[in-house]
Amino acid sequence: MTERSEQQNYGYDLEPVDISDVLSFMESRHGVHGNKPKVNLSMYGDAGKWHVDAAVSYKGREGRDEHQTFLLKSYKQLWRAEKYVKELVEEHGFSYEGLNPNLTNEDMYLQYQKRKQAKDTFTNDLKNEMTQHSTELQEVIETQLVGDENDQSFLTKKEVEQLISVHFNRIEKGLGHLAESMEQQSKKRTFADYCDEMKNLLKECRQHFKDSIIERTVTSKQKLDDKVTGLRNDVRDNIVEVKDTAKSTVKQSILYMNERLKDFTNAIDQKLYEHEPVQLDRKQNKAMAAQAHER
Question: Which three-class secondary structure string do you get for 57-119?
């Protein structure tokens, strides 16, 4: 088969089609050739827009590799194009190869790299803060969870797990409030601003968690001192087991929160760049130059 140019492998200079047309084409090829086509999504930037392509590959007659490319949609905002790609991947199981730098306008690609670097740095900073928060919670658990002379914990495993659940629910709700507050913000903000707010949120939640353990422990001790019927004779959890269970629960909760941080980062990224103009010089578009040279 004749080698295809890079422009031919992508939807450059094509008219956009609906995803239903791509699915119909896949079904027809499957019916004719008996093998299920594969779809690989990609993006490139040109003329102030971000374009989403779908490259369909399958085995044709005599087992030859066949390809058909479709241009799906074009967006002015990068995050909208990325969201559309994510939806297609999740709904149809397509693969995604990312942004094609060779078909992307140089200024747009530099803008993309700058934005991606800022977003990645923000994500890593948030994860580092969450890791530090995990360490601080482990310290609170080690120092504030106490037992009696028989190493029986004043708080049960269930009680501590409930406190941990409440703690991380507070953080998750706090992240939601931070994201929503962007709607009322008139001042231009940065990733660093939101990272600082995240630090304050974690600090407040950690103190609340510590205070809750102390308060519940005091209450439990008071009940024992008052000799509540049967309480002192009840078999309570071993303090070491309570601490180990609590620390394990914290680690699992941190993993869950790291996934939620991805959603938070995307929400902040979308808002920060929602109305950002695309800077470009069409003369620098590599794909256009290459195509013009071929003609």
Answer: EEECHHHCEEEEEEEEEEECCHHHHHHHHHHHHHHHCCEEEEECHHHCCHHHHHHHHHHHHHH
Which is nearest to 157 in space by CA: 54, 67, 240? 240
- From CA 107, how far away is CA 159, in angstroms rounded? 56
Res 226: pLDDT: 65
Nearest C-alpha neighbor of 45 from the set 123, 104, 122: 104
Cβ pair 268, 182 in contact under 8 A = yes
Q: Contact 73/52 with Cβ under 8 angstroms?
A: yes
Q: Work out the percent of the chain whose per-residue pLDDT is above 90.
A: 49
pLDDT digits (tens, 9 = 90+) for 179-237: 877 666 556 778 888 889 999 999 999 999 999 999 999 988 887 776 654 455 555 78
pLDDT level of residue 293 (50, 70, 90 thresholds): very low
* Three-class secondary structure assignment of 230-272: CCCCCCCCEHHHHHHHHHHHHHHHHHHHHHHHHHHHHHHHHHH
Q: Which of 69-83, 144-158, 266-280 has the lowest mean pLDDT?
A: 266-280
Q: How many residues does the chain have?
A: 295
Degrees to nearest 5, angle at CA 80 with 97 and 176: 110
Residues 6+ apart with CB under 8 A from 52: 41, 42, 43, 71, 72, 73, 74, 75, 81, 84, 85, 88
Which CA distances in Å does 218 have to 124, 164, 228, 290?
38, 18, 15, 75
CB half-sphere exposure, 14, CA atoms < 13 A? 20
**DSSP helix/strand/coil, 150:** coil
User: What gap in Å lies between CA 165 and CA 246, rounded to an integer?
Assistant: 11
Half-sphere exposure of residue 294, counting CA atoms within 13 Å on the CB side? 11
The residues facing 43 across adjacent strands are 52, 99
Indicate whether this model's pTM tops 0.85.
Answer: no
Measured in whole angstroms, the distance separating CA 138 from the mean position of its chain's CA atoms is 25
